[in-house]
């Protein structure tokens, strides 16, 4: 029973035994053919030869029997010589090929076990000298496995980063609220309207962060619907500007539009489009100094609408540009944290634009040279 379990748990042994069984079956078939088929076939050939030779039938029959026995003895002697050599060769070849066949599978098994233990940096080693066309199915499977492992490692890194970022974002407002409340209890901080207002601001920051995280989770999981209807995007933009005008007025930031006179009709989710525009304009406000300018233009290009939002704010460095739509990323961490940004708005914006079948990108010539965020949506 132990031997049976050992064989069942080792693929190379199974392959080796399959070769041995194949040789045994071949040998049995060969011997059976010699014993049951060859005599009649041999006799038929001799009868044909005897018909061509004159002589006594008894003598010829005896001669034929002796000839057949001699032939069979010679055949078995040859088989006794060839069979051990064939068996030995088959064993050597089967051992070699079974090991070569099992080796990549064993490497996959070991690596997958390590990954299941949380070691996401593990990879299956492959020859660097082979192109994809020169690799068999097992090596291609190993490549696909490594790609899967890389994605798992990246996902795990993002998860850890997300936990760290959320903890960091929550820590600041919670610490300020706690410090204010302790100061109020101890009588160090006066019970003034300003104190309570500061606590309310930090509580609002917590609420906004939680809401943004929930919104991002819903959007990234695809657990929402885009309800597209026909709208004039110029009207939607003007509605968003009207809502943000009081906020922009506090910093004396000019916000203007550059529209065509004719309506620009497209199919999109009106509420989601307002959310997209609000997030981008909030980002422009956040990174613009007092007296800055923000311009919104919209134009029809082929089968898409392109919306461009330019600001004269702090701009973005070349190193930071690729990370603008990454969650919790801040080009100016201390500034954006003080102004209440969660670092999730543009991540949500990118997801919503792509959900409409569009594209979004950002451009900047560098720090203090302004930023341009553009996106497109299909018209139909």
Concise account of the structure shown:
By secondary structure, the chain is an alpha+beta fold. It is built from nine helices and seven strands, in the order H-H-H-H-H-E-H-E-E-H-E-E-H-H-E-E. It is 63% helix and 11% strand.
What would your notes on this structure say?
This protein has nine helices and seven strands. The strands form two sheets. The protein has a five-stranded mixed beta sheet, with helices on one face. The protein has a two-stranded antiparallel ribbon with strand order 1-3. The radius of gyration is 40 Å and the shape is elongated. Helix 3 runs parallel beside helix 4. The protein has three domains: 115 residues, no CATH class; 84 residues, Signal transduction histidine kinase, dimerisation/phosphotransfer (DHp) domain (Helix Hairpins, Orthogonal Bundle); 150 residues, 2-Layer Sandwich (Heat Shock Protein 90). The protein is α+β, with helices and mostly antiparallel strands and 380 residues long. The two termini are 69 Å apart. The longest helix has 60 residues.
């Amino acid at each position: 029973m132990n031997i049976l379990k050992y064989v069942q748990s080792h693929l190379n042994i199974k392959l080796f035994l399959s070769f041995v069984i194949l040789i045994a079956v071949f040998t049995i078939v060969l011997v059976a053919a010699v014993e049951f088929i060859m005599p009649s076939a041999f006799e038929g050939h001799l009868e044909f030869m005897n018909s061509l030779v004159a002589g006594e039938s008894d003598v010829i029959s005896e001669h034929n029997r002796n000839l057949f026995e001699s032939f069979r003895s010679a055949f078995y002697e040859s088989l006794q010589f060839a069979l051990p050599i064939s068996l030995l060769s088959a064993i050597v070849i089967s051992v070699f090929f079974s090991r070569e066949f099992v080796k990549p599978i064993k490497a996959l098994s070991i690596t997958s076990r390590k990954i299941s233990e949380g070691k996401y940096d593990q990879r299956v080693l492959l020859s660097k000298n082979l192109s994809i066309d020169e690799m068999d199915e097992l090596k291609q499977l190993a490549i696909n496995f490594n790609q899967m492992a890389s994605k798992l490692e990246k996902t795990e890194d993002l998860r850890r980063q997300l936990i760290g970022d959320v903890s960091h974002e929550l820590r600041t407002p919670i610490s300020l609220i706690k410090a204010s409340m302790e100061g109020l209890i101890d009588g160090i901080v006066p019970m003034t309207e300003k104190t309570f207002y500061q606590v309310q601001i930090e509580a609002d920051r917590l609420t906004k962060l939680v809401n943004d995280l929930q919104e991002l989770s819903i959007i990234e999981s695809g657990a929402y619907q885009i309800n597209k209807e026909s709208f004039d995007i110029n009207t939607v933009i003007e509605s968003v500007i009207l809502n943000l005008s009081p906020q922009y007025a506090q910093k004396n930031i000019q916000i203007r539009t550059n529209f065509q006179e004719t309506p620009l009709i497209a199919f999109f989710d009106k509420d989601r489009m307002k959310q997209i525009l609000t997030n981008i304009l909030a980002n422009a406000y956040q990174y613009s100094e007092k007296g800055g300018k923000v311009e919104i233009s919209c134009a029809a290009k082929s089968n898409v609408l392109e919306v461009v939002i330019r600001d004269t704010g702090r701009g973005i460095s070349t190193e930071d540009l690729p990370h603008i739509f990454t969650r919790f990323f801040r080009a100016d961490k201390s500034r954006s944290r003080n102004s209440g940004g969660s670092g999730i708005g543009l991540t949500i914006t990118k997801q919503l634009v792509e959900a409409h079948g569009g594209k979004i990108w950002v451009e900047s010539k560098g720090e203090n040279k302004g930023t341009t965020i553009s996106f497109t949506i299909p018209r139909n």
